[in-house]
Amino acid sequence: MAATGLFLCIFLLGHLAGNLQLFMTDEAGKLQFNEYAKFMTTFPAVKILSYLTYFSIVFHAIDGLLLTLKNRKARPVGYAYSRPDKNSSFPARNMAILGSLMLVFIVLHMSNFWVKMHWGELNVDIWLDANGNRDLHSVVMHSFKQLWYVIVYALCMVAIGFHLWHGFQSGFQSLGLNHPRYTPIVEKTGYAFAVIVPALFGIIPVYIYFFG
Amino acid sequence: MCQFENGAFQKKESSNFDFSISKFSNYQIFKLVTMNLKLKIWRQKGPKDNGKMVDYPISGISPDMSFLEMMDVLNDQLVEKGDLPVAFDHDCREGICGSCSMYINGEPHGPGRGITTCQLHMRSFTDGDTIHIEPWRAAAFPVIKDLVTDRSAFDRIIQAGGFISVNSGSPVDANAIPIDKHDSDRAFDAATCIGCGACVAACKNASAMLFTSAKVSHLSLLPQGQVEARDRVLAMINQMDEEGFGNCTNTGACEVECPKGISIENIARMNRQYLGAAISYSPPKATGGGD
Ligand code: SF4
Ligand code: FES
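^ thats the input. predicted complex w/ FE2/S2 (inorganic) cluster below
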């Protein structure tokens, strides 16, 4: 869980760097973004990384599911009255639920952009841009003009934020990377990561909805 | 008139006594107030019984009683009525044996930090409170009766590797082996684990990682324990899994509820040692007779 989780954190940073280009909603931005999208789907080194990412997501999800089932079995009879809020945080106790939400989101997300970028028909009028690249930019703009999608996207970013709030530093702890001097730094970095990264992801659709 | 209420000495407006309350502020004066409580206790006749929560109203409880004394009062009343007393584990009644396992109002050892149930006092509750009392819940800690669970799984984890093999002989000079003060302090901190099982009870996964890591750490931090460190960590974790404890997801609940303040730093240390041993080491198979 830890290794794949932390790898996925790095992936999120890369993904975010790409997404931030979507703040350029004009024609030049569109051409640049589509060029970038083409590069990301064709460049061999990126391909390897992307397979590593798919693997990490699948492994993280399956391992998480097995872990949750096993942990449930470790307490077959629960407490009649329990106050876990007194000793642990909400995200820490709900990683499985938050993770499942994210999985649903990833499926939705992939079917929207990723499948279309790789194989599908781009569901808008023009599906090649002026440079002859697949026009993912327009698909994104189109999607983020739909209010329901913007809301779902933003809510999922909240779930990711909670998941990361616990997951980031938990990954280090599981790998045994705990040190009196560095652990507080890791924790603070994790909290900052959990707030800033999903917030930036989430602002993009909102921005496009209102100003795109 | 003066009256004692909730442990505080209060002077009424109408008083014609004229002495300063501050004179008494350093003293815990007796309290006249007693409490009435609603107890909800898990009753289970034996390992196979389904068990259920049963209500027991109780009155006349002094805030100065320990929680176990309150249980004694209840049991006296039950015996007088001809009912079976509530079975619960206890021994030292001073926070060192780790027997007094009770899940009180949703937390192991009840409210308060760094204490066992025997160190919990009734002044932590207020008159009229409802108090839920349950046994530790974990597949690896089956209920024997009422609040008593079988915690021998912990013993088996220790037997799997929580020791050092030395030939006894004449005592070694105290300072023969130099040990870093910080290491000896951390080893001692880990060694204060009393094996109460609150960590398992608190953990949403019923994981025994805090206990096991305390036992692994207090030996491996010292030079004498390093000889068998790799075998120890592999064997103890293996035994922990076999007993049916859950996996650690780092919620940190164990550390909060541990009466001895055992830190989850120990869990990280154990993870580190386990990863190292699992990757680099395969325990030699014994081939017998000095091979
Ligand atoms: S680690 Fe703490 S809570 Fe767990 S058994 Fe030891 S003393 Fe009890
Ligand atoms: S009875 Fe020994 S610790 Fe409570």
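Chain B has a mean pLDDT of 89.
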